[in-house]
């Protein structure tokens, strides 16, 4: 059992909160998207309200040693704006050491201490025990609220936990576990899974784990062509994983045996190559001409998928329907997002980094029941894997 932050007595205690502040910065080191900072606010506010002293820790980017360009300083500034005048955000110059320990002890009610980038120390990712002990030594309570790194066993997500007196999950992790958990255990029927993205190989375990749980699986993206090819259809120059054809055939057989429908595109939007500058070409049948490449689902497929999504009670979506980064191949992805947003009586959940980015771009995030903040972590959760960051909290 995992305990949650609101179940603990926090008054006067130093609470180490592992957050995910791995946000994008521009060349002037300004935060360009503060979603992840805002997602951490409920837990930070809960700790402050309970009289605790929050020590916030995160990684940012992939520094090799100390790198001023990847300092969390700009994040301290943004966090301070978001928390408002009644809370002061102090910035530490490291994440371990005596200086940090003293700053943590001296925190006054209402103040927040942001530790410097955990990955300035290579021991973080190496899950080094001595480093983990040092992180643990400056706090009384451990709270993990970084769902996006829960699939990694690093010092700040797993290693330090045994050295803490008390441990718990924050409110963002709680939301992720409740929403994703509801989908994989006890989704309301009809449960429709929409899967896309670039590779079948990335999603095999997700397909295998979800096939027995859903009624319908709508497939799009490049992975659709490996399935179509496995059915002996011509797919032209579309991306196909030759070594996954047998697996695709097996998955199609399994779905028949389970009575689950795997639905594949019946038409396509094509180009001669991914960076073809000319107009997109509509191919109004399943087979794709030899000189073309499927880069999005076609109009009939979009209408068909919309209908399935409209009639569902639960919709889980992972993986774009096409090369959505290019506007002329984004329509399939957009239509799926709109159909989900329009089905207000269903639980609608989006997982996966690119899918979440697409939904954000379309301005539809707020219309979904849940958009997971964990790219890789949400995939591993949907595969049914145990995440080390969550296991450490049990
Ligand atoms: P997520 O991050 O949501 O799990 P993936 O990483 O699996 O999604 O896949 C996203 C990538 O798949 C995007 O970059 C998208 O352009 C690419 N993609 C989708 N469909 C196609 C296609 N038909 N051809 C080439 N790339 C595609
Ligand atoms: Mg991705």
SSE order and pairing:
Layout: E1 14-18, H1 35-49, E2 53-57, H2 73-83, E3 89-91, H3 98-105, E4 112-114, H4 123-126, H5 129-137, E5 141-144, H6 155-159, E6 166-169, H7 171-184, E7 191-195, H8 200-210, E8 216-219, H9 223-230, H10 245-258, E9 261-263, E10 268-271, E11 281-283, E12 293-297, H11 299-310, E13 314-318, H12 331-342, E14 347-350, H13 353-361, E15 370-371, H14 375-382, H15 388-391
Parallel strand pairs: 1-2, 1-5, 2-4, 3-4, 5-6, 7-8, 7-13, 8-9, 13-14, 14-15
Antiparallel strand pairs: 10-11, 10-12
Task: Explain how this protein is built.
- The chain contains 15 helices and 15 strands.
- The radius of gyration is 23 Å and the shape is elongated.
- Helix 1 packs across helix 2 and helix 9 crosses helix 10.
- It has two domains: 170 residues, 3-Layer(aba) Sandwich (Rossmann fold); 196 residues, Phosphoglycerate kinase, N-terminal domain (Rossmann fold), CATH 3.40.50.
- It has 394 residues and is an alpha/beta fold.
- The structure holds adenosine-5'-diphosphate (ADP) and magnesium ion.
- Adenosine-5'-diphosphate binds next to strand 12 and helix 13.
- Based on the coordinates given, report the CATH architecture of the largest domain: 3-Layer(aba) Sandwich
**Largest sheet features:** 6 strands, parallel
Helix content, binned percent: 25-40%
Tell me the overall shape.
elongated
Count of discrete alpha- or pi-helical segments spanning 4 or more residues: 15
CATH topology of the largest domain: the name is Rossmann fold
What structural class is derived from the secondary structure elements? Answer: alpha/beta
Q: What is the residue-averaged pLDDT?
A: 96
Low-confidence stretches: none
For the CA atoms, what is the radius of gyration? 23 Å
- The fraction of residues in strands falls at 5-15%
Order of helices and strands: EHEHEHEHHEHEHEHEHHEEEEHEHEHEHH
Spatial order of strands in the largest sheet: 3-4-2-1-5-6
Per CATH, the class of the largest domain reads Alpha Beta
Whole-number tally of structural domains: 2
- What ligands can be seen in this structure? adenosine-5'-diphosphate, magnesium ion
Termini separation (Å)?
5 Å
């Amino acid at each position: 059992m995992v305990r949650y932050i609101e179940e603990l007595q926090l008054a006067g205690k130093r609470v180490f909160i592992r957050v995910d502040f791995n946000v994008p910065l521009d060349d002037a080191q300004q935060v360009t998207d503060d979603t992840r900072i805002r997602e951490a606010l409920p837990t930070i506010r809960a700790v402050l309200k309970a009289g605790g002293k929050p020590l916030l820790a995160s990684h940012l980017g992939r520094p090799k040693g100390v790198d001023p360009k990847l300092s969390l300083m700009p994040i301290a500034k943004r966090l301070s704006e978001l928390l408002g005048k009644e809370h002061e955000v102090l910035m530490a110059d490291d994440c371990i050491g005596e200086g940090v320990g003293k700053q943590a002890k001296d925190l006054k009610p209402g103040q927040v201490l942001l530790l410097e980038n955990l990955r300035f120390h290579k021991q973080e990712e190496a899950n080094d025990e001595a480093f983990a002990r040092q992180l643990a030594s400056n706090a009384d309570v451990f709270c993990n609220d970084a769902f996006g790194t829960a699939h990694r066993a690093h010092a700040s997500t797993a290693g330090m936990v045994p050295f803490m007196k008390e441990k718990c999950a924050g409110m963002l992790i709680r939301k992720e576990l409740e929403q994703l958990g509801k989908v994989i255990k006890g989704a309301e029927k009809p449960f429709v899974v929409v899967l896309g993205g670039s590779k079948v190989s990335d999603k095999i375990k997700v397909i295998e784990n979800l096939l027995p749980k859903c009624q319908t699986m709508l497939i799009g993206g490049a992975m659709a062509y490996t399935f179509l090819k496995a059915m002996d259809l011509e797919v032209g120059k579309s991306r196909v994983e030759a070594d996954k054809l047998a697996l695709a055939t097996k998955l199609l057989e399994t779905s028949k045996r389970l009575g689950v429908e795997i639905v594949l595109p019946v038409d396509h939007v094509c180009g001669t190559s991914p960076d073809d500058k000319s107009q997109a070409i509509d191919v109004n049948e399943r087979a794709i001409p030899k000189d073309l490449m499927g880069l999005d689902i076609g109009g009939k497929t979009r209408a068909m998928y919309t209908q399935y999504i409209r009639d569902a009670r639960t919709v889980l979506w992972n993986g774009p329907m096409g090369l959505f980064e290019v506007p002329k191949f984004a329509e399939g992805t957009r239509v799926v997002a709109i159909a989900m947003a329009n089905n207000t009586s269903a639980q609608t959940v989006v997982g996966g980094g690119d899918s979440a980015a697409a939904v954000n771009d379309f301005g539809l995030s707020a219309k979904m029941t849940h958009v997971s903040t964990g790219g890789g972590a949400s995939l591993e959760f949907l595969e049914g894997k145990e995440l080390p960051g969550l296991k450490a909290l049990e």
